[in-house]
Design a protein that fits this description.
It is a single chain. The protein is of the alpha/beta class. Helix content is about 35%, strand content about 30%. It has one domain (about 5-115): eRF1 domain 2 (Nucleotidyltransferase, domain 5, 2-Layer Sandwich), CATH 3.30.420. It has three helices and five strands; from the N terminus they run E-E-E-H-E-H-E-H.
């Protein structure tokens, strides 16, 4: 059985939705990103941000077990980073990935958006 998901993501949060069929899409989770505090050492700060980003991506993925298709949308370059993360993660290697850019929207608008993409 194919499992389709949609993810809206930016550097602050992610919203995961499961697309059940052409008429049904449910919001599964809202995930907040952690950010490191001030760090005077640039290398340490960079490593911390990279580690927190990786942790954020893992959190988003936990809601998408056995995904066959994932549409990633959001603002900035983070969705590209997330696509690369998924491509390098064994459980998502065979999932069909697509992406687009979109502004923040309500959960209801996001459900409509993902149903149009399904």
């Amino acid at each position: 059985m194919s499992k389709k998901y949609g993810v809206w993501i930016n550097t602050q949060k992610a919203i995961v939705a499961e697309i059940v069929d052409k008429d049904t899409c449910n919001i599964v989770d809202h995930i907040k990103a952690e950010h490191g505090g001030d760090n005077s050492n640039e290398k340490s700060a960079h490593n911390l941000e990279k580690s927190l980003l990786h942790k954020f991506f893992k959190e988003v993925c936990k809601d998408m077990q056995n995904a066959s298709s994932i549409h990633i949308t959001g603002t900035g370059v983070i969705q590209e980073q997330f696509v690369h993360y998924l491509q390098e993660t064994p459980q998502f290697k065979h999932a069909k990935l697509s992406d687009s850019t979109s502004n923040p929207m309500s959960d209801e608008a996001l459900v409509r958006f993902f149903l149009e993409k399904a």
